[in-house]
Structure of 4-hydroxybenzoyl-CoA reductase:
Amino acid sequence: MLRIQQYVKAQSLEEAYTLLTKNRNNQILGGMCWLKMEDRLIPCAIDLGDLGLDKIEESEDVFTIGAMTTLRTLETHASLNAWCDHIIRDSVKDIVGVQLRNLATLGGSLYSRFGFSDVLTAFLCLDCDVVLYHGGVIPLAKFVQMPYMRDIITHVIVHKNKERKAFACVRKSATDLSLLNISASTYEKGYVICVGARPYKAVRFEIEKLAVEEVCQVVSEQVELDDNMRASKEYRRKLVGALCRRVLEQLEGKVCK
Ligand SMILES: Cc1cc2nc3c(=O)[nH]c(=O)nc-3n(C[C@H](O)[C@H](O)[C@H](O)COP(=O)(O)OP(=O)(O)OC[C@H]3O[C@@H](n4cnc5c(N)ncnc54)[C@H](O)[C@@H]3O)c2cc1C
């Protein structure tokens, strides 16, 4: 059971950061969907709800997404989804149900870097940065590799390039975790392909332009996969080939979503 000794609704990021770094067990609260399932004692739970971090702002070059933005807001944001070929909507729409998606946040999802995360896989193929209160602006591709640190994600900045994007995943049943997920985008030299739920956290490949079959083969050979209760390593290897072909064909406009 989760136990919280003190709850603070922070009035500034500085206050939140000071509280966070006071005790290694203090925690920032996102939507609490994951935290509430844990069996632990939190000396001080820090709520960012008063800090206006639940908005998506659009400028000519970027979308600036507050860390407290819910998955449901991401799913239903028309201009963000139109720009990203709807991969954000596609990556979150099967996560449990609307009630959970109305709570779970982008900050909590990216901070956690869950192996099964569809959200992480989708954002990883975009040109985007994580803004940490103390650590500054870090490309998501680098943040994914970093150890967990005592810091606060304040925003995610998505750069509006003109590349095409696609996302696909396989679930055994509608709201279960993905057995495997893949996102892809084009870039000037070729393709970015990200594979998650391997079952480890998503990895990103940049592959120079080759024929679709060759790209699928390279990714299938290079990606590290494993068994877990949802799927075997061998089955995942077959899924990598099939999903990789599916997202590449979407990028090339050969299939409709
Ligand atoms: C039953 C269930 C099923 C799920 N299924 C899926 C799925 O199929 N696909 C998928 O992609 N995801 C899935 N998720 C995960 C979900 O999408 C969220 O990623 C998860 O709940 C964490 O988000 P949260 O806002 O609830 O974070 P919380 O639970 O509040 O926090 C999680 C961690 O992140 C830290 N944190 C939160 N916000 C910040 C911040 N701004 N800065 C620094 N640290 C922060 C917290 O301190 C905590 O350590 C599932 C979750 C649940 C509970």
Notes: Residues 56-159 form a domain with the Uridine Diphospho-n-acetylenolpyruvylglucosamine Reductase; domain 3 fold (CATH 3.30.465.10).
